[in-house]
Amino acid sequence: MSNERDTVLHTWCVQLDWNAPTIIGGAGARLFTADGRSILDMSSLAECSNLGHQHPAVVRAIRAQAEKLCFVTSAWGAEPRARLAEKLLEKSGFDGGRVFFTLGGADANEHAVKFARQASKKGIGRIISRDRSYHGASYAAMALSGDARTASQASPAMFGVVHVPPPYAYRCPFGTTTDDECGRAAARLVGRVIDTHGAETVAAVLMEPNAGTNGIVAPDTFWPQLRRETSERGVFLIADEVMSGFGRCGEWFAWQRHGLEARPDLMTLAKGLTGAHVPLGAVVLSAEVSRALEPQMLMTGLTYSGHPLACAAGLAALESYENEALIARSRSLGGEMFARLKAMQAKHAAIGDVRGGHGLFAVVELVRDRASRTPLAPWDWMHSLLRELLGEAMEAGVSFGARGNLLLLAPPLVIDEGELADALDLLDRLLGQLTAKLAATGSPLR
Question: Measured between alpha carbons, how far is residue 25 from residues 38, 174, 336 in Å?
Answer without folding.
Answer: 10, 47, 29
